[in-house]
């Protein structure tokens, strides 16, 4: 991909450059001129001698060769022919701003496919179609129809939504936030977020990468690239379409399928991407990362002129991974000697409402020198004594050059706006409320911890693939979409997954023979691929102790199911060893996500999963750390550690189970979904009591 030519082109052609103000072709050319582009700029218009003072090129055929960048502002149906003509000039990059492609229906999808084929055949890096355009403040590029041009900075932003690009660009200009690169990806017919991550990872002008996505193309490539770049630069993403209503809107917007939100949450978490849930949060984080160093630890000190807001800040710290720093005795003594007697010299350091800029500067300098503080939050509320601009200047004097991050909260709006703006322009993020600042510092701390750790190594195990292939082949031969019980057990055993001993009994006599081999007590449950939750269907008998009880249970279960579920195919009953008393029930499994592949899930069985939705997720492949977090991340995890005198569950056995299940999912993409429910676990072992393995259609 020639994305260097996108951001630093030596020449640019605007196809469809118009003399009429308000036309997109006119706006793009005008933006390029006003951005200060120093290269060759060619407006292409067959009906004009000049456009905006530049000599017009009558035809694409008259453009120079090679051509770095072409911006196409012509109707959709003219785009394919224009690209074919541009390809003869060895075009490297194209930006297509016109709409009416896949988002408009079948005909638009067909044209988009043709446009993509032309670009791929001729090695043209295509941005769009259906996009706003591209900006690079470093090289004076504004190949877009967005109003305004931001100041130069180190934050890059790419978005699938052009309208969101325009709004955020206007907001960044209004907030004096510096931008390095700005890209509207549109329909991503060729260049997608993975290409953009790579390009921005190589850009020396970019320190922080922001992205808005509705769906991710080529999920596995995206995961690999995100893991790589997020160790060097913070990547902050906002995902649109995370609810059913949003997903429906996204489909109408760009024709994209947004995918499951748990899969995106797992993808971001496992690759180190910081997920923002609002546009405001995304830019809160961007400001902090763009101009302040990472904290070297979790300990935060608060310097304030107001007690109440400081308490709110401490509450926010208590809900985060951060901690309130315990200042050294030397720092406390210094503060006591300088501050009024009524001031609080412990953390938070409350200088009192009468604090002036000189007092703030001295106090902040002392706290910054304390080795027990890894970061500092300066929290100023408006009082009769407060000069916001002078207070901001005091922060700048005390904190400039510090190796510790200093974030500010100037609470309020009208009175504090002048001071807040001065801080931002001086490189000190300033927020209207303390919770925002604490959230940003926590994200910076988490990012720093991730960078300091070695790259995770994906766990790997070997399985008997021949046995799994055999089970799949036999299920296919029977025309089944579920692997039958005996085959499913063979699949799990092939990967050393712990399966409770069981046998399929087609008759009551076979049930008695199976129980004789397994030993009483046993479990008797219906064998039917259509009945996933057997207990809910009244199709399970536990702790069956005698042949008489077993025969009665077999006949009752099969008869009951025939009446209750006449649509279900019943092949008999599974006779299974009875697990020891006191084992806890958990569920584990995976489902193949269209974007990212196998998505593992884990939770406590019953109401914890079915009603409360207490489920954790990870994408395969997983590392040892991922397996640990998969089990420990659920809210009900403490119930597995042993409460009220109960012995703790064997967590390591569950982690091992997750790793082996992950490997099975990777090795056999034919298995679309696996549901291990329940998995029984005690302090000694974990064992799979029931499993359902579903196959993709041929």
UniProtKB/TrEMBL annotation:
Signal peptide bounds: none
PROSITE patterns in the cross-refs: ATP_GRASP
Source species, domain of life: Bacteria
MF annotations from Gene Ontology: acetate-CoA ligase (ADP-forming) activity; ATP binding; metal ion binding
Positions of the ATP-grasp domain: 489-525
SMART domains per the UniProt record, alphabetical: CoA_binding
Keyword Ligase carried by entry: yes
Annotated Pfam families: ATP-grasp_5, CoA_binding_2, Ligase_CoA_2, Succ_CoA_lig
Keyword check for Membrane: no
InterPro entries associated with the record: Acyl-CoA_Synth/Transferase, ATP-grasp, ATP_grasp_subdomain_1, CoA-bd, Ligase_CoA_dom, NAD(P)-bd_dom_sf, Succ_CoA_lig_flav_dom, Succinyl-CoA_synth-like
Keywords, ordered alphabetically: ATP-binding, Ligase, Nucleotide-binding
PANTHER family cross-referenced by the UniProt entry: 3-HYDROXYPROPIONATE--COA LIGASE [ADP-FORMING] (PTHR43334:SF1), ACETATE--COA LIGASE [ADP-FORMING] (PTHR43334)
Family named by the database record: In the N-terminal section; belongs to the acetate CoA ligase alpha subunit family.
Name of the protein in question: ATP-grasp domain-containing protein
